[in-house]
Amino acid sequence: MAFESLAFHTKLRILRWLTRLLAWLDRKRHPVSTITPTSQISIPSTLSASPGNFDLHIYHPPGYNQSSTKKGEALYPVVIVLHGGGWCVGHARHDERFIETVTQRGRAVVVAVNYRLAPEHAYPVPLLDCVDAMLYIWKNATAMGVDKHRTFITGFSVGGQMAFASQYWLAQAIAQHEHPQIDRASLGTVKAITAFYPPMDLTKTRAQRAASNPAFMALKKKPASSSKLIGDIFDRAYFWNLPDTIDKSQICISPGLAPLEMMSRALPNHIYVKLAGLDPLLAEGKAAAAQFEAAGKHVECEVVENVPHYWDHLGKTEHEKTLRSRVYERAADEMEEVLRNVNKLQGKLFGPRTWEIGTSTSSLIQLVAVEYSSIRGDACFKICQY
């Protein structure tokens, strides 16, 4: 047992080092122009049984006026970003390309959460750190210059999973009158969730997930981001020292399996799910999007074809760089659309819009939209090709 633990932690240290190396190489190949956190604050854990602090990295848009916002004037929307990495690797600054896309528009403050990692802090600590971060931002909204009732949450991979799970956890805690440290008077409002390739059903094995995507199975060389070795590390780390019999169908572990009533009550009206065509998580992401729509939410499900899980953090070519920029720009557009309240359609009336994004190598990027009816009734689909 001691040897197995040593071997596991050795593999994890190597994986963490490789993750930092890949992030550095990506920034070197395609530099992020000027984005750095405006400030960094350390906040205490109040909800989990694991005491300690974790950091929030705060990014202000150009023209941000701290003196006026502290007076309650011109409060900005706030975008909370939850990084990926299988709950055990990664860092809040690894999503700075997306953060730059949002902040450079000058319309929002971004807070990236550097939640504590497993196995040192196993389930549910990373999730509760995300909830703690949200509650801290809401309680200190005026001082931070943000409007707590215009909160957006964006998550990548497991960050997307925790974006949904955090809403379920908070809804349950409030309904059950648990955790007196939650200041109900200071609660804000989440307007939308944007989740990039989130794991939504942890009851499935890695093999079952892979088999659910024929395009992935057809690959002669499987992407490293979906390897069994990495998957096993992620799975063991998050549930470290927890019973093997833990019920992974719990809604805070498998948010795609939540009852429709919980989805309807806990989640925001606007949900954007962005999936990868060569990802073993593709099927469960689509299934979750359909459930959100059934719960009455306005859902847009976007599939980027011919790319693997975590593709936007691993881009090697100019085309991938351009594709990443377009997908990020669309995500920022969707947030602004929610703020403008332009789209009055209700998901329950028109269904989710599903975007299929191809990865043609043409240097000319074109957006082609075709609307059509399907056997799903009055669902409205758009097929988009870059």
UniProtKB/TrEMBL annotation:
InterPro entries: AB_hydrolase_3, AB_hydrolase_fold, GDXG_lipolytic_enzyme. It comes from the Eukaryota. This is Contig An12c0120, genomic contig. The keyword Flavoprotein does not apply. Keywords: Hydrolase. Its EC number is 3.1.1.1. GO terms for molecular function: carboxylesterase activity. The keyword Flavoprotein does not apply. Signal peptide: none annotated. Gene3D superfamilies: alpha/beta hydrolase (3.40.50.1820). PANTHER family: AB HYDROLASE SUPERFAMILY PROTEIN C4A8.06C, ALPHA_BETA HYDROLASE FOLD-3 DOMAIN-CONTAINING PROTEIN-RELATED. Residues 79-311 form the Alpha/beta hydrolase fold-3 domain.
